């Protein structure tokens, strides 16, 4: 059995490698044909789409990613499009799973999607990588013609051009991949469909319900978090290194320029140049030399030579530019920012470090070189200002390259990690869990059959899970062996167990039975309102993505204070007394106090806890100031609490409670509408009603009628 399983595992791995290799070869053939025919296309996704049809996510994403990596060995520019290839691979598998790559109308939608990813997303990536430029070639020529016919601007015309070219390209490769799929032998397709990497549904699933977050989700989150942290750290380090290296490169260029000038200029004539200016012998020749040096590099913005004294900068040379007229030799001008910063060093004639400053024309790197005579006395300073305006575009281009490469790599790694976790951890555990759940102790025959079932599992992962399986098998065998003894005490244990279960059941039943569903539903309505307000530009200054996320995540804590409300009051079916109602109302202040304690324990600023406190404390405040606990009104009430007020009331209306039957959605919507400007913030109500279709969808999924 063990040898058979190992053979099957190796066969599966070799099949995966074969599919990947064959499909990568198809991509290379397409690339080669495109080059031979001189087409303005790519033809590099035939194998990727075929891998999606034959093998699913694992081979498809591997083919898309490795194709760009391998092509990138000879064309480094291609390697940065890994993320686009991976996205196309994901889209291809999606269409395959929906059976939309074998029906003509759906094939057009797939081609459109592939073209959007390759043309629009890929075009924007090209624009970033090229430093806010689409480069040159057929696509940019076509864009020029499009813009001439319909003036839409540089970026839209180029994106349109890229999309049109990619639509033709993806149409060809999609049709080619579909044709190859149809001529693939049915036996091969059936064999591939049985592989664990083809579709994770072939793995063993547990019939048991998870009580919390599944291992699959935990692995996904762990891999996503760890890889994201690595990517962020690596990207941050890379961009910092690139930034520093670029500045060093500019600084080195400036030092070379100023050193050449310092070595070339006639030091014996410095005083004459300063006093006589252009009338001095050799001044014109020196000035022409400075112009020639400045023209040697497009990055050199200014060149000037000053003698820095107590009363200011004495101009010896100051070259004219298109933007600024030059000062004349002998003029005394105020210190600029950099000279003022290092004034003491200038006056002492010492070496001065380079300095970066910003002005209305952009960032400038100023490099200084002292001009010294034979005795070492500093006569003046040669200054070169280098424009750093290209630094931003270069950094954006570099960042785009790093992110696109990392994202493609991380998506592939995440897919493999989840698949391996599914194959070697989750499926074996589910198998053991299912076997345990189906184990029967009723009769001797049932126990025997159950033991045979456990033994037939034959978990051979070679790790702790296999140890767990063997330990479970041994424990089960021991349990069966001592079953007679266990049966003698079974009734006592059963009575004790039933008693504990009844106690726990009474404890659960004595609390608010709706709270669990309520917090999930109110969180859903809260998200709907926030997204709709964001879409409509309501409270645009507040509704950042970060804020919305924090409110949604903290929404389930809005009723945390009810833990301090007695069960009898919480679940009372009849009308509450004034005293009982005040006790119910106290849950808002209690919730705020509970979260205050959490904030104190955290001992750091937390927007999440701040919003949780706002929600818990103020979600029963009213727009007209007649709410509780503090009687706040209008925008005195935190925005998150105003949103929760609508979500909370609506859910309460459409839900069954111990003291009432649910309202219909239409009735509840009318009540919310009537409360606008009175109970509720009118802007929040507007967004809620504008999203009525989505509200109804959530209500239909959750209403307990």
Strand fraction: 5-15%
The name of the CATH architecture of the largest domain is: Orthogonal Bundle
Counted up, domains total: 4
Quantity of strands, as a count = 6
| Main sheet attributes: strand count, strand direction, barrel closure | 6 strands, antiparallel
| CATH topology tier name of the largest domain | Arp2/3 complex 21 kDa subunit ARPC3
| Sheet with the most strands: spatial strand order | 3-2-1-6-5-4
User: What value does the Rg take, in angstroms?
Assistant: 36 Å
Name the average pLDDT. 82
End-to-end Cα distance: 53 Å
Structural class computed from helices and strand pairing = alpha+beta
Shape: extended
User: Spans of 5+ residues with little confidence (pLDDT < 50)?
Assistant: 493-510
Helix content: 55-70%
Write up this protein.
- The protein is α+β, with helices and mostly antiparallel strands.
- The chain folds into 4 domains: 2-202, Arp2/3 complex 21 kDa subunit ARPC3, CATH 1.10.1760; 243-394, Beta-Lactamase (2-Layer Sandwich); 406-502, no CATH class; 515-702, Orthogonal Bundle (Hypothetical protein af1432), CATH 1.10.3210.10.
- 65% of the residues lie in helices and 6% in strands.
- It has a 6-stranded antiparallel sheet with strand order 3-2-1-6-5-4.
- Strand 1 and strand 2 form a beta hairpin.
- Helix 2 (46-55) crosses helix 7 (154-183), helix 14 (389-438) packs antiparallel against helix 15 and helix 18 (515-536) crosses helix 23 (639-654).
- The chain is extended, with a radius of gyration of 36 Å.
- The two termini are 53 Å apart.
- Residues 493-510 have low confidence and may be disordered.
